Amino acid sequence: LGLAFQAQDDLLDLIGTEATLGKPVGVDQKNGRQTYLTLAYPEVNPVNRTQELVRTHTEIGCAALERLPDSPARQSLHMLAILLTDRRR
């Protein structure tokens, strides 16, 4: 889930808006930072590929949670993982 979070954060820095995120956007590119979009998928559409990657990492994380005993904590983590894929800020 940490990988999904970082990929989504990198994506939002590129396609998000300052009004939605509540912080400046384009900071990674401006500062020359390497991100999921610049490192992993330079030869394909990096936005689409990174969105797929967020979904894939989230699915893997949710599958791992299923191995844990059912509990309010596990349910909360699952909900957090699902919300991550829709994260806009």
Quick check: average pLDDT? 88
Element string (H = helix, E = strand): HHHHHH
Q: Main beta sheet, described? A: none
Estimated radius of gyration: 14 Å
Percentage of β-strand residues: under 5%
Structural class: mainly alpha
Q: How far from one another are the termini?
A: 16 Å
Rough outline: globular
Oligomeric state as shown: single chain
The helix tally amounts to 6
Task: Please mark out the parts with pLDDT under 50 across 5 or more consecutive residues, or reply none.
Answer: none
Number of strands: 0
Approximate helicity band: 55-70%
Description:
The protein is an all-alpha fold and 89 residues long. The protein is built from 6 helices and no strands. It is globular, with a radius of gyration of 14 Å.
Write the layout of secondary structure elements.
Layout: H1 2-15, H2 18-21, H3 27-30, H4 36-39, H5 46-65, H6 72-85
Helix pairs in contact: 1-5, 5-6
Quick description:
The protein has 89 residues and is mainly α. The protein is built from 6 helices and no strands. The protein is globular and about 45 Å long.
Features:
89 residues, single chain
